[in-house]
User: Fold this.
Amino acid sequence: MLEKFPKKIGYADTLEIYLSRLESLILSEYKISKRSIALLLLQEDQEMMRLVKEQEKERSEAIFKTIQEAKAHYSQPLGYIISQCRQTEASRIANKVMNFKQERKITLKERLSKIMMHPLTGGPILLAVLYYGLYKFVGRFGAGVLVGFLENKVFGSYISPFMIHLVNGLIPSKLLQNLLVGEYGVLTLGVRYAFGIILPIVATFFFAFAIVEDTGYLPRLAMLIDQLFKRIGLSGRAVIPLVLGFGCNTMATMVTRTLASKRERIIATLLLALAIPCSAQMGVILALLEDKPLGLAVWLGVIVGVFLLVGFLAAKIMPGDLPSFYMEIPPLRFPRFSNILRKTASRLKWYFLEIFPLFLIASVLIWVGQITGIFYFLVRILEYPVAWIGLPKEAAVAFLFGFFRRDYGAAGLYDLKKIGLLAGNQLVVACITLTLFLPCIAQLLMNIKERGMRIGMAISVFVLFFSFSIGYLINITLTIIKVHL
Amino acid sequence: MLSEGAEEILEALWIQMEEEGNKPLDLGANRDDPAIEELLKLSFIRIDKDHIHLLDKGKSHAIACVRRHRLAERLMVDVFDIKKKIMDEVSCKFEHLLHKGLEDNVCTLLGHPKICPHGKLIPAGKCCLGKKLKNSLKFVASLDELDLKDKGQIAYLQAKDKNQMQKLISIGALPGVSIILLQKFPSYVLQIGESQFAIDKELAQSIYVRLIK
Assistant:
């Protein structure tokens, strides 16, 4: 015969008295039981208190007075007492059906977990994950092989010429032809970049990220990094949006919502806008510097340095609470292929629905800018800071593009390199400045949406000036110490 | 050494003055108490028509009394696991036995607790400043004072505000739950029940654990 379990959890006697008193005072209709509401009120749940105040009106004063009386009976917050009672009951139920083996062998997974969490071995593991996951898989395979295939063969040889032919034949207006299939046309550039370049790179990134995520590695990384992150005003949890930033900064900025305090969110958004290169951009930068390993090292060093320095300063300046770090460490698991595919597919779907239209708009904006002459005007203005950091004035176009699409910018530099206009130190300086440069238009809009107009614009203005200043500094430094990369 | 009655009066005086807004104690029922005479002779207090006032000379003794009382309460609850109902009665008697440095030992044993079971502050003593715990004396300690692989049961949480308390509750760190310290650097990793959690030093300092050998 099954023992009848009571339907309710019995709390301490005094609490039960207050619970029934509260239940009798709450008279309106709610969607949940009165007992639940009373429990939430005792635990000072803000939303429920607001709701009850609205619904109960005159009676709410009596209700809140009862709550205060209940609180006076205990020295600990009621939430604590209630949780304790629940814990006791849960343990009681669990103990009736669970047995614990005393002797436990350490499994391979536990050993691996320990290695991952040890500060000495965790570092090399992180480097291995970054090297194979990010550099080899996303960088070489995604940005190299896949992009090469899609952009050059599929679009270059088949789709783009077809489009150009079609549009020129059907649409008489030169203006519209330019909009659709011109040099920066919606179809020839916008769509080609979205499918030929962004899609393979972002897809490989999401795939690799899903694998890392599903193994349970990220909380262990967060745990190792927490102390370092505290110095830059963040907690270990911030590792998730920051790592996502290597895939797509716009998506990562949205994920900063999961951080606990406003201060953390602002610092993370700032660092994402400034020093985290997205996968599209990184792919092209790796291609730009592939024959200069020293240049690549300088680029990496400067970016990491800027990240830590700005983070440290921002943490000093921004007022607010220090972040707290607490995170569950799930057991290591072998990722399931079906899950990974599903995650990658849903992220790709989100990406295309949210981001792709923005890139089409970017093409349209460039077209408008060209027609009205604003485009050339902005380029002329940019030529000054560009010359100032030692680059040829042709690079100004690449930077303007860098605003609309980070990879447009990097690809612009790639073209300059091909025709020999950009070499040595200039190449490295250009890469550094472009990486630090303004976030792409999608990310800028997301910044404003998430952090508000004031902070979003402030971050953008700061990033704009800071990136060129660092470019200038690096250029001067390299010249002074007579290093030729 | 003061009589028990004198100690009680000093204690009540200090609480009135420090924690309930500087009001002197009503003379009232204690008028004929020999303890009042005792304290007057030592110049620890002065009396006027209706009230008793604590003098500077008596202040340090009063603080020590409060400290002993609250440490006794902590001892009853943490070590002997006495129910709140009889705690007041027992600790009221016990406090008078904690003299001659015994209270510092008890304080060390309990891991230098900062609040009593009622939530009031325990005045600090000399031992709280040099916080090195000797292995033999550890009984209840905050998580950051434990060694690796130490096992125990959570005795109580000492969170600095409601948010911190909420965070600790959300990872299941409640009194009575068994806990093992797995790692201290770079973050504290603990095993609560069958799950593992990572927390930072500040949160670790808020969890007080009763060690199990």
User: Anything to note?
Assistant: The longest helix of chain A spans residues 119-170. Chain A touches chain B through 31 residues (CB under 8 Å). The mean pLDDT of chain A is 82.
